[in-house]
Amino acid sequence: MTVKKYKINIYPSAEKDLLEIKEYFVNKLKTSPNNLFQKFYDSLDLLEFNPTIHSLVKDTYLNQLGYRMYPIDNFLVFYVIVNDEIQIHRFLYGKRDYLLIL
């Protein structure tokens, strides 16, 4: 039995989030974000074969748009499944008001 593999597309907004997180870890916390980023990339490996593993967000509007969310440490990853593609839209600090950001 063949398992379907989805394409991962990290949007520029999520890439920008990752860059800002890296800069914050290095410049403010004086530590490496490598462990966090490794968890993020490991989670993408899981998503490629199980994109519906995480539930839709509870917000009605974002839910209708198909947004799914999952935590990694103190951060939240937001993504949408479109056909055979998983679109990673944002990688946000969990205490931020993501409803205003998205």
Overall description:
The protein is an alpha+beta fold and 102 residues long. The chain has helices at residues 12-27, 34-49, 60-64, 98-101, and strands at 7-10, 67-72, 75-82, 85-93. The chain has one domain (7-101): YaeB-like fold, CATH 3.30.2310. It contains 4 helices and 4 strands, in the order βαααβββα. The chain has a 4-stranded mixed β-sheet. It is globular. The relative contact order is 0.20.
What is the compact description of this entry?
The protein is an alpha+beta fold. The protein has four helices and four strands.
Which key features would you list for this structure?
alpha+beta, YaeB-like fold, 102 residues, 4 helices, 26% strand
Total separate domains = 1
- Residue-averaged pLDDT: 92
Named CATH architecture: 2-Layer Sandwich
The best one-word shape is globular
**Structural class per helix/strand content?**
alpha+beta
Q: Indicate the CATH class.
A: Alpha Beta
Number of strands: 4
Which strand-content bin applies to the residues? 25-35%
Output the helix-strand order.
EHHHEEEH
Spatial extent as radius of gyration: 14 Å
**Biggest sheet, strands in spatial order?**
1-4-3-2
Termini, distance in Å? 38 Å
Q: Helical percent range?
A: 40-55%
Largest sheet: 4 strands, mixed
Low-confidence runs of at least 5 consecutive residues: none
- Tally of helical segments: 4
User: What is CATH's topology name?
Assistant: YaeB-like fold
